[in-house]
Amino acid sequence: MTNRSTQLPLHGVRVLELGNYIAGPTAGRLLADFGAEVIKIERPGSGDELRNWRLYAGDVSMLFRTINRNKKSVVLDLKTDRGRATVLELVRRCDVVIENFRPGTLERWGLGPAALEEANPDIVLARISAFGQSGPLSDRPGFAAVAEAMGGLRHLVGEADRPPSRVGVSIGDSIAGLYAAFGAVISLLQRERVPTKSPLSERTVDVALHEAVFSMMESLVPDYLAYGLERQRVGGRMEGIAPTNAYECGDGHSVVIAGNGDAIFRRYMRAIERPDLADDPGLQTNAERWARRDELDGAISTWTRTLPRDDVLKALDAAGVPAGPIYTAADICADQQFAARDMIQRLPVPIAADEPQEVGFPGIVPVLGERSLPVRSLGPDLGEHTRQVLTELLGKDDEETDAIIMEMEKK
């Protein structure tokens, strides 16, 4: 382990990740990024299904390599006595267990909270599920798409005259993973600060996907209960705030401009050569501007379509108006700001039968200092660390290790 690794905030914390797809592994990734040793348990044969999501070449998708970076992969069958016994051995040596199975699954396998606490009375348990561990919907399965719908997000995404849309990533899973990682850290902190040992129920982090999404919905419910206001889809705008939208430029590119602050608005209108709008007494507050949003967007679009994107952004920057380009992956890779903070890190990765190829991967957020921490390793090959963990961490001899590995290979 490098000196840099031993200096990371979570160095010395060991995490057992029991989960697939995105939510649970995102929580594990965040802890691993900041120094925790994360041991990811995968099923024999196929492993985490994310290995095959958006797989365009090679054996392992870039999505899996990204979400499961800085982890170790161990293959065990949680449905077998040997697999469960080995997991409990690992629990005794871990600080945190992360799982994102349907509620009741671990319990059916004999790996529920009671078994975990018996194995390690100090363990922290982070559980992610569609609807949480309690309540009338708790036993239902569900992916982030359902959570985004029930959490209120989908209703607000898209154009008003079209059906609800979705954002282009599994945002519900990612938000839930963030909460699970945060919950694990605060539970670890509480464990260290409170001398009296608490029951596992007080160290169980229960993250429901739909609640994680709902928590991001700002004043959606308070606005409804206080004012009877049901927010609606408004496309690229933000309801009640204007002008803020995406606008096409003369060269076919688009920009996002957020000129909705009162003082910013006046500078904004002068920058687009519309001082009459800047000084209009009926446009001095957000409520007034929202009422005339179509007029404002028309004036702004008329101006942006006369200039290429770079000239639009230059003029707005000079006026102190927040604006930015709508980037593609290629734009991000070429951007100096991303590069300056190591937010694109190139690592060798096998894609096909050829030599490993240098591929750029997202850096680690948040930044500690001035630049991203380095990504130490990409998502591992299936079972890459099984032998290492069984022998070095659990102290098993070669004969027992070989027997476990052979049993898994027969699955």
CATH superfamily of the largest domain: Crotonobetainyl-coa:carnitine coa-transferase, domain 1
The percentage helix is: 25-40%
What is the first-to-last residue Cα distance? 33 Å
Number of strands: 11
How does the helix and strand content classify structurally? Answer: alpha/beta
Enzyme class: transferase
Organism: Streptomyces lonegramiae
InterPro entries: CoA-transferase_III_domain, CoA-Trfase_fam_III, CoA-Trfase_III_dom3_sf, CoA-Trfase_III_dom_1_sf
GO molecular function: transferase activity
Characterization of the model:
- The protein is α/β, with parallel strands linked by helices.
- The chain has two domains: about 5-215 and about 360-410, Crotonobetainyl-coa:carnitine coa-transferase, domain 1 (Rossmann fold); about 245-325, formyl-coa transferase, domain 3 (2-Layer Sandwich).
- Helix content is about 40%, strand content about 15%.
- It has helices at about 5, 25-35, 60-65, 80-90, 105-110, 115-120, 145-150, 170-195, 210-215, 220-225, 260-270, 275-280, 285-290, 295-305, 310-320, 330-335, 335-340, 385-395, 400-410, and strands spanning about 15-20, 35-40, 70-75, 95-100, 125-130, 205-210, 245-250, 255-260, 325, 345-350, 355-360.
- A six-stranded parallel β-sheet has the order 3-2-1-4-5-6, sandwiched between helices.
- The two termini are about 35 Å apart.
- This is CoA transferase.
- One of its GO terms (molecular function) is transferase activity.
- It comes from Streptomyces lonegramiae.
